[in-house]
Write a structure and sequence with these properties.
- The protein has helices at 2-51, 55-58, 73-80, 89-127, 133-143, 152-161, 168-192, 197-204, 209-220, 222-238, 241-246, 254-257, 269-289, 291-300; strands spanning 262-263, 266-267.
- Helix 1 packs across helix 13 (269-289) and helix 10 (222-238) packs across helix 14 (291-300).
- It contains 14 helices and 2 strands; from the N terminus they run ααααααααααααββαα.
- Residues 301-305 have low confidence and may be disordered.
- The radius of gyration is 27 Å and the shape is globular.
- The protein is mostly helical and 305 residues long.
- The protein has a two-stranded antiparallel sheet with strand order 1-2.
- It has 2 domains: 2-58; 88-300, MetI-like (MetI-like fold).
- The termini are far apart.
């Protein structure tokens, strides 16, 4: 009888220990997720809170999350040029709106150039017999490992020689050079997942190679094109270092402009936070709208089939 009781208690004890380990594992997992979420969302949430807090509350000690007297006067001031207690605001508004427009122009042009040239290059590497294409693919992948700061002086001298300093076209050229390898790599992987029989059938019906690309492959490559377009646009919009070095008063992008809100009394962190919130709206909206296509495009080329 004692033996039966012991044998019955062992499985129960094993089940309890497994349950306890499972609970501990799940608890640690969700705590890690919560900590990661706080690290990602916390700074953006604090930026929003700072943008609607009064200057007195921003300077209060200790800081608090919920503002006692929330206000939207900074948002109104950035678009109307009228703000109580904000020094040199009309000039700041002009700089801010110009920075938004510059970012939009640079990001749009960079996206168009990267997607157009990157798609053609990726298709050629995926379908044509290009000598040494494997080495070329490794070379463009290796180029992404090179920090920008290492070649910032040669880039500066090159733009200076070609009279492209303080110009939007120079910034577009730089962004295209740094983002094009990634676009080629993603689209190359995506094209490998599409069967060649589709193009062969189109060419048997009278299409040449380029027509088969436009009429057959491009329509099927929607998720991949959306993914690389979003990548190029968001990367161009958020880039700061090169925009700081290679732009002047009239060509600064929004990432540089929001760091320059200051008055004779010092930096206006509230106005800087407001500019940051407004400047982050376009990429956030784009990411949310294209989330499904971005994920599909980035993962479609991971497995060839």
């Amino acid at each position: 009888m004692e033996t039966l009781t012991q044998n019955w208690e062992k499985p129960v004890s094993n089940r309890n220990s497994k349950m306890i380990r499972s609970v501990i594992k799940n608890t640690l997992f969700y705590l890690a997720i919560f900590a990661l979420l706080c690290l990602v969302v916390g700074p953006f949430l604090w930026m929003i809170i700072s943008s609607i807090s009064t200057q007195v509350e921003l300077s209060s000690t200790p800081p608090h999350w919920i503002p006692q007297n929330p206000t939207l006067f900074r948002y109104e001031a950035l678009f109307t040029g009228m703000g109580k207690g904000l020094a040199n605001l009309p000039l700041g508004v002009e700089k801010f709106l110009r920075g938004l427009m510059n970012s939009l122009i640079v990001s749009t042009l960079t996206t168009i150039v990267c997607v157009t040239t990157g798609t053609l290059a990726a298709y050629a590497l995926a379908r044509l017999s290009v000598p040494g294409k494997n080495k070329f693919m490794m070379a463009i992948l290796s180029s992404q490992m090179l920090p920008v700061i290492v070649i910032i002086i040669p880039l500066y001298l090159m733009l200076q020689k070609f009279d492209m300093m303080d110009s939007l076209r120079g910034l577009v050229l730089l962004y295209t050079g740094f983002m094009l390898p990634t676009v080629i790599w993603i689209m190359h992987s995506y094209f490998l997942t599409l069967p060649q029989e589709l193009e062969e059938a189109a060419m048997m019906d009278g299409c040449n190679r380029f027509q088969a690309l436009l009429k057959v492959i491009i329509p099927l490559s929607g998720p991949g094109l959306v993914a690389v377009s979003a990548f190029a646009f968001l990367s161009s919009w958020n880039e700061f270092f090169m925009a700081l070095i290679f732009t002047g008063a009239n060509t600064k992008t929004i990432t540089v402009t929001v760091t320059e809100f200051s008055s004779q009394f010092g930096v206006d962190f509230g106005l800087m936070a407001t500019g940051g919130v407004i400047g982050s709206i376009p990429p956030l909206v784009l990411a949310f709208l294209l989330q499904k296509y971005i994920v599909a495009g980035l993962t479609a080329g991971s497995v060839k089939g």
